[in-house]
């Protein structure tokens, strides 16, 4: 009965109720959105690389190295000499080494030059190896293996021919027109930046750049199948992923690489770098969350004010309900119920908005920032946030509710 | 313990005095003795400010007197908890006000059902009763789904009688119920009220400052006669 009264009472004050619901919905939307993105980002980040013990790159910030080697964000400031790669790969502690070379793109998707070792040793998520939906690793020169998203977004199939662009811009003017690549493999979806990557052999990457210097082509040269015959080693790579034989030797190897005499190198532990990246993000996230909480608090105070101001108009209604035998405590509950119903409506709208926003903006976030958000919003974190919102509402709504209780205590026939 | 005893008076007052907290020593009400029999129809007259609202609030258990006894249906309300008094009022006392008898945002049906629910009457019994009452009061059944604001003043007051009787209360209090009605409607309203109170065996306490209505009642009491505090104190 009380719910019915509360609902009808709110319906009779539709305009104010709707405005209140909307302001609460916006606050909850921001609050839930931040929580969701945080959680998803953390998940997606931690899934991106696993089983790699060290990432080696030229001296730079550890975050920078992590971002471009794993997330294909930003760029390398310098390269590693091929000779250094060979030296490192032969070290007794090193079980495997994957060279990575970045810098080109195809329709905005990054191109990664690597070797077969990549498909053999790279792990993501929970130590999962890369699998193929179709085809397999490159065998011939100018073969390309594409990630699941590249395949689905650009609608590429095995045997498709494509041209790479120099540089990372989605609309690059410098294309490697002379060297078309052929799709030989499509990887299974991983939910990591791998899905958005085109993988080619390091040698092919090197050969298409042979005639380029400082980002422009210096001579015209037909490649055709010359790469096969030349079989030259590449000059350099941008990063190396390393797996060690024995976990215990990781730190020793790291020190060794950091002191590498021939060129300035650095080796980072992906886990440590990830958590550092995470801390950097959490500051932003905490600030946003705090602001959202404050705004939520303000809008709940607005809700309390709204209910409080209507009590004056509802004096006769309160008196009538009291004469009918409604207890003052029930009046208190009625006001609480009205407040909680408004917040519940706000929460439903917020969840709907979030769901809609994820559907609309989700693919874009994945494309631009490599952030893969699931549209599974109802998680422990969101439920906690909503629970907190309801508890806060209950407490704040005590202000008008207690006022209604007091009015109820002294309401009788005189109020008619 | 909550249930009233059948042989008791509807209202029985003995040495009752009441003063509002903080109003000093002056009592609003000082009633040495007053009784209403079961089934009686009493016209209680008095100008506003004579303490009648206070008396009605005492009868309904909204207020509690600290000295003297006030028994309603044999129950000494002052000895009951606030919760028991609320329950008692809901189940045994029906009230018709001058206006604002219905919650504006609920339909007429829901208004009746809220009263029934609080008075412990089942939905089925309440709807059956209100159908009978609607018939007697010549109210259209279709009004049940209307909102009170769409009803005329006359219709609203008649629905108020239905609402007041939905729990078949032993006592029916009408507090200036005709003030909002024009003179044509007034007499028929009072006649309906008297007839229904008799039919439903409810004790009727009709409060008004309009002496012209008193003629239709068995008993007319001026509050000034029973209240020694007189009409000096406004409430």
Give structural notes.
The complex is a heterodimer of chains A (416) and B (235). Chain A is an alpha+beta fold and 416 residues long. Chain A folds into two domains: 2-45 and 280-415, no CATH class; 54-268, no CATH class. Helix content of chain A is 53%, strand content 16%. Chain A has 13 helices and 16 strands. In chain A, α2 (14-48) packs across α12, α2 packs antiparallel against α13 (380-409) and α10 (270-313) runs parallel beside α13 (380-409). Residues 220-230 of chain A have low confidence and may be disordered. With 235 residues, chain B is of the alpha/beta class. Chain B has a single domain (11-226), classed as Rossmann fold (3-Layer(aba) Sandwich), CATH 3.40.50. Chain B has helices at 52-59, 82-92, 108-119, 123-136, 153-165, 183-199, 223-226, and strands at residues 11-18, 29-36, 41-45, 67-72, 75-76, 93-96, 171-175, 203-208, 219-222. In chain B, strands 6-7-8-3-9 form a five-stranded parallel beta sheet, sandwiched between helices. In chain B, α3 (108-119) runs parallel beside α5 and α4 crosses α5 (153-165). In chain B, 47% of the residues are buried.
Reconstruct the topology from this structure.
The complex is a heterodimer of chains A (416) and B (235).
Chain A: H1 2-12, H2 14-48, E1 54-58, H3 62-70, E2 80-81, H4 82-89, E3 94-106, E4 109-114, H5 117-121, E5 123-124, E6 128-129, E7 132-135, E8 143-146, H6 148-154, E9 161-162, E10 181-187, E11 198-201, H7 202-208, E12 212-213, E13 216-217, H8 226-230, E14 236-237, E15 239-244, H9 250-258, E16 265-268, H10 270-313, H11 315-323, H12 328-369, H13 380-409
Chain B: E1 11-18, E2 29-36, E3 41-45, H1 52-59, E4 67-72, E5 75-76, H2 82-92, E6 93-96, H3 108-119, H4 123-136, H5 153-165, E7 171-175, H6 183-199, E8 203-208, E9 219-222, H7 223-226
Helix pairs in contact in B: 2-3, 3-4, 3-5, 4-5
């Amino acid at each position: 009965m009380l719910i019915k009264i509360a609902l009808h009472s709110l319906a009779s004050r539709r305009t104010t109720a709707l405005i209140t619901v909307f302001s609460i919905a916006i606050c909850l939307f921001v609050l839930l959105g931040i929580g969701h993105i945080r959680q998803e980002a953390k998940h997606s980040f931690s899934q991106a690389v696993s089983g790699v013990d060290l990432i080696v790159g030229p001296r730079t910030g550890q975050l920078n190295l992590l971002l471009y080697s794993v997330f294909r964000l930003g760029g390398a400031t310098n390269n590693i000499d091929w000779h250094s790669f060979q030296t490192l790969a032969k070290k007794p502690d090193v079980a495997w080494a994957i060279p990575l070379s970045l810098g080109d793109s195809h329709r905005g998707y990054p191109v990664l030059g690597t070797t077969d070792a990549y498909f053999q040793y790279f792990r993501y998520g929970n130590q999962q190896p890369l699998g193929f939906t179709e085809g397999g690793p490159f065998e011939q020169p100018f073969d390309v293996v594409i990630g699941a998203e590249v395949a689905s977004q650009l609608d590429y199939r095995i045997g498709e021919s494509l041209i790479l662009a120099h540089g990372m811009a989605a609309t690059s003017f410098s294309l490697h027109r002379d060297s078309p690549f052929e799709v030989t493999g499509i990887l299974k979806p991983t939910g990591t930046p791998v899905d958005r990557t085109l993988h080619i052999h390091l040698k092919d990457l090197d050969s298409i750049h042979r005639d380029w210097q400082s980002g422009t082509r210096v001579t015209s040269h037909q490649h055709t199948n010359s790469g096969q015959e030349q079989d030259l080693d590449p000059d350099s790579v941008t990063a190396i992923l390393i797996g060690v034989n024995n976990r215990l030797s990781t730190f020793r190897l790291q020190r060794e690489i950091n002191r590498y005499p021939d060129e300035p190198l650095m080796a980072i532990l992906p886990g440590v770098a990830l958590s550092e990246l995470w801390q950097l993000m959490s500051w932003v996230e905490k600030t946003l969350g705090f602001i959202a909480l404050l705004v939520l608090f303000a809008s709940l105070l607005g809700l309390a004010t709204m209910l409080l101001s209507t009590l004056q108009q509802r004096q006769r209604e309160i008196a009538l309900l009291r004469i009918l035998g409604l207890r003052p405590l029930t009046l208190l509950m009625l006001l609480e119920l009205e407040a909680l119903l408004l917040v519940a409506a706000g929460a439903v709208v917020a969840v709907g908005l979030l769901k809609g926003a994820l559907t609309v903006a989700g693919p874009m976030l994945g494309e631009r920032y490599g952030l893969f958000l699931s549209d599974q919003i109802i998680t422990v974190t969101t439920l906690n946030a909503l629970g907190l919102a309801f508890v806060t509402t209950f407490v704040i709504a005590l202000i008008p509710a207690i006022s209604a209780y007091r009015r109820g205590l002294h309401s009788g026939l005189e109020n008619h | 313990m909550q249930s009233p005893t059948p042989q008791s008076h509807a209202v029985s007052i003995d040495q009752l005095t009441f003063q509002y907290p903080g109003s000093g020593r002056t009592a609003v009400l000082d009633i040495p003795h007053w009784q209403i029999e079961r089934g009686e129809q009493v016209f209680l007259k008095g100008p506003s400010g004579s303490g009648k609202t206070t008396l009605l609030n005492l009868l309904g258990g909204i207020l509690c007197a600290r000295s003297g006894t006030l028994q309603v249906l044999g129950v000494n309300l002052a000895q009951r908890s606030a919760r028991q008094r609320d329950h008692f009022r809901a189940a045994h006392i029906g009230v018709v006000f001058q206006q604002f008898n219905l919650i504006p945002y609920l339909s007429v049906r829901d208004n009746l059902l809220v009263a029934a629910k609080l008075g412990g009457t089942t939905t089925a019994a309440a709807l059956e009763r209100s159908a009978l009452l609607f018939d007697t009061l010549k109210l259209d059944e279709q009004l049940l789904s209307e909102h009170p604001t769409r009803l005329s003043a006359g219709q609203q007051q008649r629905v108020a009688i239905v609402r007041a009787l939905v729990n078949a209360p032993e006592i029916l209090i009408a507090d200036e119920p005709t003030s909002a009605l024009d003179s044509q409607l007034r007499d028929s309203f009072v006649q309906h009220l008297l007839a229904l109170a008799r039919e439903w065996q409810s004790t009727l306490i009709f409060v008004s400052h309009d002496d012209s209505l008193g003629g239709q009642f068995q008993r007319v009491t001026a509050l000034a006669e029973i209240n020694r505090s007189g009409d000096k104190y406004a409430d």
